[in-house]
Amino acid sequence: MSDIVIVINTGSATLKFAVFGVTESGALGEAIYRGLAEHTQTERKLTVRNATGAEQQSLERFGVSGDAMDSAATLAWVLTWLDDNCAGSRILAFGHRVVHGGDTFRAPVWVDEATLVALDRLTPLAPLHQPHNLDAIRTLMKLREGVPQIACFDTAFHHTQPRVAQMFGLPSTYFEQGVKRYGFHGLSYEYIAEVLPEVLGARPHTRVIVAHLGSGASMCAMHNRLSVATTMGFTALDGLLMGTRPGTIDPGVILYLLDTLGMNSKEVAELLYRKSGLLGVSGLSSDMRELLASDSPRAAEAIELFVYRVVRDMGSLVAALGGCDAVVFTGGVGERSPLIRQRICRGMAWLGLRLDAGANAINAACITEKRSRISAWVIATDEERIIARQALSLLHLSRRL
Length: 401
Fold this sequence. Notes:
The protein is built from 15 helices and 13 strands.
């Protein structure tokens, strides 16, 4: 019987999963399957790639209208597929991405009811993600009773930041109550930090800025592969312009929306989490691919604002590091949009960054010329591998293997 670890990463309309083998010595092996389940008002779609990269697709349609299929139903459907395709394997654990761990959870944890209660209290800080993350854990605790459910946190990587980088300009009592900059996308950044020496080789990489650019977007300044500053803060609203989130905004705007325009807190939350960002500015789409294909002036303006915010915030991270040796692009947009990388790199020319247009066009690993003072790279992130490794390490520490 072979042993496996299954990674679950849930969103509002998608569920990503990966199945990793475990060697006889207890080490993490390669991914056996990677899958994406999507649910809408009328259908559920499952796309899976096996270890060779071959794609398998299964589509199940529903002639219904109304609310989108809930994530619990989609997870149960995915479990059926896993049971059929992983028969004969022993599931050692389910590893889960949980976006917010707050001050309490700085390392992976074995989830029980008390842990869920503590994590539920953090839902207001990550309302787009935390409920779905925790619902998946609750569902699996019922459907796979006795199999360890291990939570891995997007905030944990950033606990190495100095106190001053975590502070807001508020009375210190609020800081002690947990009102501070936490940062997110930590599982992605941890993977990039792990592979940097191998990818960059002998090139300098003491001071690196990683740009995780996708529907959610942030950047992280790393010194010796540890987080020292990041663009996201108390919640995942802060920092860069995103698919539906505005990024950094004057707090006075929020007060104006509440006090002068008469909006209530739920309406403001809906505006900030679901109706702003690329979607709000363009009036067209939250998808960068659609905006790049559009001839709409508002689409062009949304792209310009996205690039401007990345370049401007990258400058602040260079200052936090006292210089920069390399820039890494990752995430959906960062990995697959040569035009966006080109525009960002053009804005970083003052640092001596010289883009290699040919390398950039084919998404090569290194996209700068040899004469470039700092190097720029494209590295595909692998949050699922980090989650699987963390879950397996916790099992070893708990002497369950």
